[in-house]
Amino acid sequence: MKEELEVIVEPLLEWYQENRRILPWRENKNPYCIWVSEIMLQQTRIEAVKRYYARFIKELPTIQDLANVPEEKLLKLWEGLGYYNRARNLQKAAKTIEEKYNRKMPNTYTELITLSGIGEYTAGAIASITYNERIPAVDGNVLRVISRVLASNKDVLLLETKKEVTERLKNLMQNQTKDFQSGDFNEALMELGELICLPNGEPNCQECPLQKNCIAHKKGLTQKLPRREKKLKRKEEDKTIFLLVSQKGKIAIRKRDEKGVLNGMYELPNSMGKIESLEKIKEVLEQWNLNSTNIENIGEYQHIFTHITWKMITYRIRVEKENEEFIWVSKEQLEKDYALPTAFKKIIK
After folding, report:
1. Which pTM value belongs to this model?
2. What CA–CA distance (Å, rounded) separates 37 from 39?
3. Among 55, 131, 192, 277, which is 20 to 30 Å from 324 by CA?
4. How many CA atoms lie within 13 A of 134 on its CB side?
5. Residue range 72-115, pLDDT digits in tens
6. Is 38 annotated as catalytic?
7. 4, 27, 38, 79: which one is catalytic?
8. 214-243 burial by CB neighbour count: b if 16+ within 10 A, else e?
């Protein structure tokens, strides 16, 4: 088994040296920068991450800055990236590093993986890229490349498949020569998966440095692999969203509970279920001690999360007075100071 993957090392590293992209977090191999970028890159593509990363590092250039930034500002800097618990875990880990590691990133995989929000992949990426530890970083791109190279029919969504690929790559890396660059190898696999060995449609096999070594290419199986069993259908949830606007032009927002989807974030007031009758809308407003001067249906929206889809009917409602239950802010304040999830931002726009 080991020999099958041994043949990919040299051509893969040669290709990477010639074709690697210039990325802001790659150039100095600063462990803090690598860490922030890897967390941002979870669930988000590289091109989209670049501008968020630049803004984040400019505002919070050190672990100490991250550990001590107010949560409101942290979430505002993260706005647009989604999955906000990633930002909260970043700060939690930064506080641990301040207290336990004297403000310096731990330099081993074993220590890194104990930090909040850092799993096997992220720990492997940081340890290999910044400290040259011979440990793999296996994400979806890597699983896809290895599955095609080996023409493996194993389901890449299964944990046991990921564990097997991780173990094989670990053995491969530990058997390389003394000058072997672990970080380059891991980044090369990820880069190949993102640029050449594409997930949807036909991969760019003619540009792939592993074409001669790829069993899936030889057997015409690249479009059938990797095997992924269909995920369960997302749960759908109907919601009624209220864009409440006061006579002063201020918008009502409130903070969500500290549990569940988008926990602790700000949101537009809303109710479960799809409310279509004017009487029902007025009943909800009465519960909030609000009187409407105008109610306008501004359309239906959909927002897709990992495991759930919100189907939202939305009303813009002018109200006579601002109540005390909500936070009333100008549009400028909302854009500057409050982190509002994309599901609600698209309604305001």
Report:
1. 0.76
2. 5
3. 277
4. 14
5. 999 999 988 888 889 999 999 999 999 999 889 999 999 999 99
6. yes
7. 38
8. bebbeeebbeebbeeeeeeeeeeeebbbbb
